[in-house]
């Protein structure tokens, strides 16, 4: 059990958190200026699950300090020379219960009470993850209905671009094959008095992968995959994307598709204490290598750029 009476975060704890964050943020700031890195900070809502708690511990009333001492530190230095079975383990599942759309503003609404939200745009996103013959993991990122003023510029989420994909007869959909984004900082915030917890995720990457780091195998695989994906099929009425029909275009040899998701993204602008944020509400479906059935997942993400 959690002791709410001792739930306040002490000044000492806040100072320790600042010290932990300061060095990597300074390094990131230097890299951003030197290498023109793209940085975005996301806060996703969901639930933190704790495993490895025995029955006796579950009956105890615990303070935040007690809980912190029982959680295993996931850094290599944190688990070195420790019996990992003696600590609690944490996992995070993104997603929230279906939202009441009446609580959100529509186009044209001004000065909404909740965070000053204003609906700016609605678009649709599609992702496919592939394992290549050389065991690289790459992702196709595609968008339908990007803002008219985007001027062909990829969204902020598109980093480490390997090659664009020209989709046949689909001029309104923009797509790129990318390397995975780099997570610089990630942490879960457990909120005992709330229905949901949250995860902070600070990601970075250059807009394009430099030509000098691509070898011949990489270039050949990306060209083969790009040609194959240019034949993808879209259903604009249901906003879904499918891989090419195997009768017309087979998956290239030794390529594996491991993951797919489709999401409606409603983009809101928000203002809190003079700070400006982008709030993205996602209605998402997807599947991965664990099964072919699509699973619905409603997500709320707050993005700070």
UniProtKB/TrEMBL annotation:
It comes from the Eukaryota. This is Uncharacterized protein.
């Amino acid at each position: 059990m959690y002791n709410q009476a001792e739930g306040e975060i002490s000044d000492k704890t806040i100072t320790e958190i600042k010290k932990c964050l300061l060095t990597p943020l300074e390094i990131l700031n230097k890299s951003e200026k030197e290498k023109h890195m793209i940085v975005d900070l996301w806060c996703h809502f969901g639930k933190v699950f704790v495993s490895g708690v025995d029955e006796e511990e579950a009956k105890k009333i615990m303070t935040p300090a007690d809980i912190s001492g029982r959680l295993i530190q996931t850094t290599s230095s944190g688990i070195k020379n420790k019996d990992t079975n003696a600590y609690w383990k944490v996992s995070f599942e993104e997603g929230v219960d279906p939202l009441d759309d009446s609580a959100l503003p529509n186009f044209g609404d001004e000065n909404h009470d909740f965070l000053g939200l204003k609906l700016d745009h609605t678009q649709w996103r599609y992702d496919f993850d592939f394992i290549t013959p050389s065991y690289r993991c790459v992702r196709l990122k595609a968008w339908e209905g990007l803002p008219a003023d985007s001027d062909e510029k990829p969204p902020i989420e598109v980093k480490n671009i390997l090659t664009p994909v020209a989709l046949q007869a689909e001029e309104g959909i923009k797509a790129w094959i990318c390397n995975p984004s780099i997570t610089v900082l990630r942490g879960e915030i457990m909120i005992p008095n709330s229905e949901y917890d949250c995860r902070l995720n600070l990601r970075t990457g250059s807009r394009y992968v430099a030509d000098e780091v691509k070898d011949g195998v990489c270039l050949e695989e990306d060209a083969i995959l790009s040609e194959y994906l240019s034949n993808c099929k879209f259903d604009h009425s249901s906003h879904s994307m499918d891989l090419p029909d195997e009768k017309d275009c087979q998956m290239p040899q030794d390529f594996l598709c491991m993951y797919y998701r489709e999401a409606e993204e409603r983009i809101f602008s928000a203002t809190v204490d003079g700070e400006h944020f982008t709030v993205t509400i996602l209605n998402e479906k997807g599947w991965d290598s664990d099964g072919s059935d699509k699973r619905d997942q409603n997500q709320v993400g707050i993005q700070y750029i």
